[in-house]
Design brief:
By secondary structure, the protein is an alpha+beta fold. It is 28% helix and 29% strand. An eight-stranded mixed β-sheet has the order 1-2-3-4-5-6-8-7, with helices on both faces.
Length: 180
């Protein structure tokens, strides 16, 4: 399934979802491509501790008929990945959320050469629209405290720091955005 969605605040943005970026719902048959893309992004990260890779089982939980895992493509090249997860009460309890009707942004990745153009923020807006459509109370994400770029993007999209926890092998900011 492909989405046609314009999510940029700036018509002058170099990469705009729905104009030159397409959204593709990932299916089970694309799991190998998904794992390969995640590995490519992590291998090119200078601070690998900022990101904990998802396992095949975690990817499958989002892919399995729920339309919550997406590739973002420019022409035929995969340039971004967004994985959203619902119905995970144990994880949400670990994050100490006010309630359990939150959607987890499990993964949001952008290839190096497409960073710095507001693309991650567009992906966050898409995640918000998806959570709204599903009747969620909000979104939650974990971000390494030193990952200033992602933190800035989440703050610009009105996410708030709920608290800081030691999880995923290190310190993580628990960021939430309530659905209005």
């Amino acid at each position: 399934m492909w989405y046609n969605w314009y999510g940029s605040d700036s018509v002058n943005a170099k990469y705009v979802i729905g104009k030159n970026i397409d959204i593709h719902v990932i299916n089970n048959k694309e799991l190998d491509i998904l794992i390969k893309f995640q590995k490519e992004i992590i291998d090119n990260m200078s601070n690998k501790e900022w990101f904990v890779p998802l396992t095949e089982e975690e990817f499958l939980a989002s892919i399995d008929g729920r339309d919550n895992a997406y590739f973002f493509k420019c022409k035929d090249e995969i340039i971004g990945l967004l994985v959203l997860t619902c119905d995970i009460p144990d994880v949400l309890e670990e994050y100490q959320l006010p309630n359990k009707n939150y959607m987890l942004i499990d993964s949001v990745m952008v290839k190096d050469e497409y960073r710095g153009y507001g693309f991650q923020r567009q992906m966050l807006k898409f995640a918000y629209e998806r959570a709204l459509k599903l009747g969620m109370d909000g979104l939650v994400a974990t971000i390494h405290p030193d990952n200033k770029y992602s933190l800035d993007n989440f703050i610009k999209e009105e996410y708030e720091l709920l608290h800081v926890l030691t999880i995923h092998g290190g310190t993580r900011n628990i960021m939430i955005k309530k659905i209005k």
